Amino acid sequence: MKYDVVGLGTVVVDHLVLLAQHPPQDAKTNIISDAYQVGGPVPTAQVLLSRLGKQCAFIGSWGDDQYGPLIAQDLTAENLDLEASRLLTGTRSGYAQVWIDEQAGTRTIACYRPEHWLQPEDLDLEVIHQARLVHLDGWPQETCLYTAQVAREAGVTVCLDAGSLKPGMETLIPYLNVMNCPRRFLSEYLQTDDVLAGGMALLEQGPELVTVTDGVRGAWLFSREGCLHCAALPVLSLDTTGAGDVFSGALLYGLLEAWPLEWVLKFACVTAALKCERLGNRDALPTLAEIEVVLQTRELNLSRLG
């Protein structure tokens, strides 16, 4: 295989704005600092994977506005293959403002999701056939479903980071091998807040592996072998932006390495937690050495449920 992971999904430019705390409505506050970064669930996961030594190709699109060149330059600098991506003339790139509350360690996001996407007929199917894993975020709906179908037919593992409920989930999920979602997705999609029931329900819809993340309450992993829960690593959280994306990337790394599921879950939890100690999703990405030190020196509470 030429690529470890081929990703398809949203790419945006994030404008990170650090505030002492969120101002009340119709009020002003001073900005501590601000910065621009390239984000999106799939690109962020792939940048982590690339830095950890995996070969990645990204399939996506951006506009010919002021943000388009930034996206292309950034992803190229991170060694992502962009041959299957496109610049769509006359369109706007994805953009998001991320207000980070330094005191609370939370973030509020207002985003412009692109209105123009690559269509199924635009895909280079050979790139998909050369992947060990295909990583998706659910956008764009038709192209995402088609990619999953092509990948499964070719024997390629299909993974989804379902950050939020998107159209067509009920059609896409049966084609998945691996699915990651935050706990709120269970309420949105299954109308349940019961993690154990929700995780098992997703598993029954097709995936072989399902993970559910829940911030400071840790993460769950569901498979045919049962359910595992890993408690969150206590950290001083500065910025949770991209934590779920990083968790997904670390999860895929562990699966590519064919580790036992207990170790895969611990690795993903630690990687996401370390990211939260720093601002953004690039400078914040931990190195493999940093992750390994924590795994070797910090005790993580891992339990088997059900």
Automatic annotation (TrEMBL):
Pfam families: PfkB. The keyword Transferase applies. GO terms for molecular function: ribokinase activity. Keywords: Kinase, Transferase. The keyword Iron does not apply. Its EC number is 2.7.1.15. SUPFAM superfamilies: Ribokinase-like. Residues 30-287 form the Carbohydrate kinase PfkB domain. It is an enzyme of class 2 (transferase). PANTHER family: KETOHEXOKINASE, PHOSPHOTRANSFERASE SYSTEM TRANSPORT PROTEIN. This is Ribokinase. The lineage of its organism: Bacteria, Pseudomonadati, Planctomycetota, Planctomycetia, Planctomycetales.
